[in-house]
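To whoever picks this up:

The parser on our side crashed when reading a file containing two proteins. I've narrowed it down to the boundary between the first structure block and the second sequence. Both blocks are reproduced below exactly, byte for byte. First block:
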Amino acid sequence: MQLHRRRDEEGQVTPALLIAVIGGFAIAVAFVSLQNLLDQTGRAATASDAAALGAGTGHRDALSDVFAGNSGLHLGVLKQLLEGGSPGPLVLARAEQEAREYADANGAELKSLTFDAFDVGSRQWEYTALTKQDDTVEGGNSEARSESRSRVAVRITGGVCTGGLILGGGCRGFGLLEKLCELELAPPEPVPTPSPSDDPSDGPSEPSESPSPTAPPFIVPPGLEGVGCLSGADILGLLDPEIRLIT
């Protein structure tokens, strides 16, 4: 049986088909735009994560410079840091430099790097990196999509105890460790031993040589034998800093 189109139905397929084509095209455009937005959001998050990790890397690398040498002064610096003090301008500058390089390598600009604080409880330095993508997509709030924030922590994983460092299986206070450095770098002056007085009844006698002066003894506490003054490398080995992203 053949079906015949009525005269008044001719031309009605074309508008319906046009509507379907337009609807499909709109869906395709919306899908592409959504995909671009998701891609940009993902790239922005990746860039801020990279910048934050770069800040942590710069911070850790700069600690080597802070604790360089064997002067013993690094113990005082470490005490200040563990009490929640700022890591100092040198460390902050190095952290920002590395964060900027990592952001640039991921197609973004570092808008800011903020040192949040030193968390005494978890023993970690915390930073927040804000980046903005160099390329943006049209439509909507592209500024919000192109900017992203990430946080990073440089955490001390070991070697620290309350008021000191863990050495020889026990907690050794900073005061004792500083004393060891002082004795190594500036030994105490020897104490002269008095010579025996001459007895006049024995008649004249030849002058005797004065005994060599002796240094006062210093007894090294158990567990610290052979430790001496800790170097910066020793301290970094004990701290074993770990870098990780935080929420």
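<<boundary where parser fails>>
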Amino acid sequence: MRSSMVCLFLFVASSCAAPAGSGSLTAPIADPGDDRVILVGETTTLSGLLSCDSEATATGGLQYSWTMIETPDGSALAPTDLELRSVQFGITTDTAGTYLFELVVTNGSRSSQPEIVVVEATTNELRVTAPSAAAETEDRCGNAL
């Protein structure tokens, strides 16, 4: 009796799988860059250049959507709509604290998962993080930049 139950269970489980097809369900990948700590009043560039679509060979077909989701109390930072739709743009911190930006990329049919980059503005020079010394040569999908 036991062997027929196992066989029935395996048959039911295998027939519940999704049908194989030729279409891809791969969404693009958003990459807003590394978190960083900068001095108040400094400018940093938010960049989605490492974002990609595994079904494309370059980022040219991606649309970028940045959202500023948090700023410190008293900050007047206000990126323009054009900047928030750009692959990259600069911000100048005006108040000490945490600035959070979210990036979503779209390939016309699918959107990436949202990814967040943290920019912390400080007055303590010892907390500042240095940018990466090595330039990136590939996006997140392995395409050459």
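After patching the parser it read the second block fine. Residues 26-127 form a domain with the Immunoglobulin-like fold (CATH 2.60.40.10). The beta strands are 36-39, 43-47, 63-70, 88-92, 97-106, 115-122.
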